[in-house]
Specification:
There is one protein chain. By secondary structure, the chain is an alpha/beta fold. The chain is about 40% helix and about 15% strand. It has 10 helices and 8 strands. Helix 9 links the parallel strand 7 and strand 8. Helix 2 crosses helix 10. It is globular.
Length: about 350
C-alpha cells in the first residue's frame, strides 16, 4: 500500500510538472495579444507564518503594478489584491497582467498579485493562508507601499476567484480568534475590504465534477476530466476538507458569510458554458438573501477562462468588456469609501 501511494504521488507530481510547463507557454503566448500587457513595476516579499498560518514558513512574492503618478511619500492609493487561477496547482502571479493593466488605466489603484503557494506541494489550506497573510502584510506596511488600507479590493480568477471569498472569510476568522491585549485591542493593522470581484469561481468542492459537468449547457466546452481530477487530487487530498467553509464558501454557514464578507460591492462574473456557472448563480442568490449587495453577470457563450486563451492574435472582446464593468465597480467602491469613511464592518 505504501509503495502504491508513493507511486500515485509521483505520478501526480509528474503530471502537474508537465501541465505547468504547458501553462507557462500558453501565458507567454497570451502576453502578446494587443494591447500589450504591462510588466510588474517591482516585487516585494513577506515571510509566511507571521500571522498564524499553519504551513511551513516560506518567502512569498508580491508583484506590484503601480499607476504613473505613484509616489508613496506624497499620496496613498487604493489597492487591488489579486489571486491568479490554475486550479490551485498551475499558474503564476504574473498571469493576470492584462487585468492589471486595465485596473491601472481605469482606477488609478495599486495592483498587487500574490504568488501564493501551489498544490500538490502545498495543499489546502495553504493558498488561503498565504492570501490573508498577504493582506495583513500590505496593511501593516501601508505607509511604505503608499496603500490606503481602508480601500482594499480583492479580485481573482477561477481558483483565485475562490480565494476572493475564502481569504476575507479566513482573515475575519483569524482576527476574531486573536486574544485581545490588556486594553482590549488586537495586534493587527487597521484595514477594510470594500469590494470583491470574482471571475468564474469554484465554490463547492463537495459536489462532484461529474455533476458539475452535466449541469453545464455545453458539457463538451468544460475543462476536461484530466485537468479537473489533477486539480482536485492536488489541492484537496483530504476528503473531509471539501466541506470546509474556507474551501467551499457556497456551503459555508450563514454567520461566516455574513461576518466574513463585505456587505457591499460584491461582483461575480460567470461563464455561460462553464461547469461552475450554476454554482456561481446560486451563490450570488444566497449572498443577496443574506443582505449582501451583489451583482452577478453572465458572460454569454464562453467557456471557463475564456479570457486567458493562448492566442497572440487577439482576445475575445467580451474579456475587455467585462473587465471594464469590473473596473467601474471598483471605482464605485473606492469612491463610496471616500464619501462615507470607515463603517462598523471593518475587518
Amino acid at each position: 500500500m505504501a509503495a502504491s501511494t508513493s507511486s500515485s504521488k509521483w505520478q501526480l507530481q509528474a503530471q502537474v510538472t508537465t501541465f505547468r510547463s504547458l501553462a507557462r507557454t500558453g501565458f507567454w503566448l497570451h502576453s502578446f495579444a494587443p494591447p500589450k500587457s504591462p510588466n510588474h513595476s517591482f516585487k516585494k516579499q513577506y515571510t509566511s507564518g507571521m500571522y498564524g498560518s499553519s504551513g511551513p514558513k516560506q518567502v512569498i512574492d508580491l508583484y506590484f503594478y503601480v499607476p504613473k503618478n505613484y509616489d508613496p511619500k506624497k499620496r496613498k492609493c487604493p489597492v487591488v489584491v489579486n489571486f491568479h487561477g490554475g486550479g490551485f496547482t498551475l499558474g503564476a502571479a504574473t498571469d493576470d497582467r492584462r487585468w492589471a493593466g486595465m485596473v491601472l488605466r481605469e482606477t488609478n489603484a495599486i495592483f498587487v498579485s500574490v504568488e501564493y503557494r501551489l498544490a500538490p506541494e502545498y495543499p489546502f489550506p495553504v493558498a488561503v493562508e498565504d492570501g490573508y497573510e498577504a493582506i495583513l502584510h500590505l496593511a501593516s506596511n501601508s505607509d511604505a507601499y503608499g496603500i490606503d488600507a481602508q480601500k482594499i479590493a480583492v479580485t481573482g480568477f477561477s481558483a483565485g476567484a475562490n480565494l476572493t471569498f475564502t481569504v476575507p472569510m479566513m482573515l475575519h476568522d483569524y482576527t476574531e480568534k486573536l486574544p485581545p491585549a490588556s486594553d482590549g485591542s488586537k495586534d493587527i493593522p487597521s484595514l477594510r475590504i470594500v469590494s470583491l470581484i470574482s471571475f468564474y469561481p469554484i465554490l463547492n468542492f463537495s459536489e462532484s465534477r461529474t455533476l458539475k459537468r452535466t449541469s453545464s449547457k455545453r458539457p463538451e466546452k468544460c475543462l476536461p476530466p484530466t485537468l479537473t481530477t489533477m486539480f482536485d487530487a492536488s489541492y484537496m487530498p483530504v476528503e473531509k476538507n471539501q466541506t470546509s467553509p474556507f474551501a467551499s464558501p457556497s456551503i459555508a454557514p450563514d454567520d461566516i458569510l455574513k461576518n466574513g464578507l463585505p456587505t457591499e460591492n460584491i461582483s461575480l462574473y460567470c461563464c455561460e458554458w462553464d461547469m461552475l456557472y450554476a454554482e456561481g448563480l446560486e451563490f450570488a442568490k444566497r449572498l443577496k438573501n443574506l443582505g449582501k449587495a451583489v451583482e452577478c453577470h453572465t458572460i454569454p457563450e464562453v467557456c471557463h477562462a475564456f479570457d486567458k486563451a493562448p492566442n497572440p492574435i487577439g482576445i475575445d472582446p467580451k474579456a475587455d468588456e467585462h473587465y471594464l464593468m469590473a473596473c467601474k465597480a471598483l471605482r464605485r467602491a473606492f469612491a463610496e469609501e471616500k464619501k462615507k469613511g470607515v463603517k462598523n464592518d471593518e475587518i
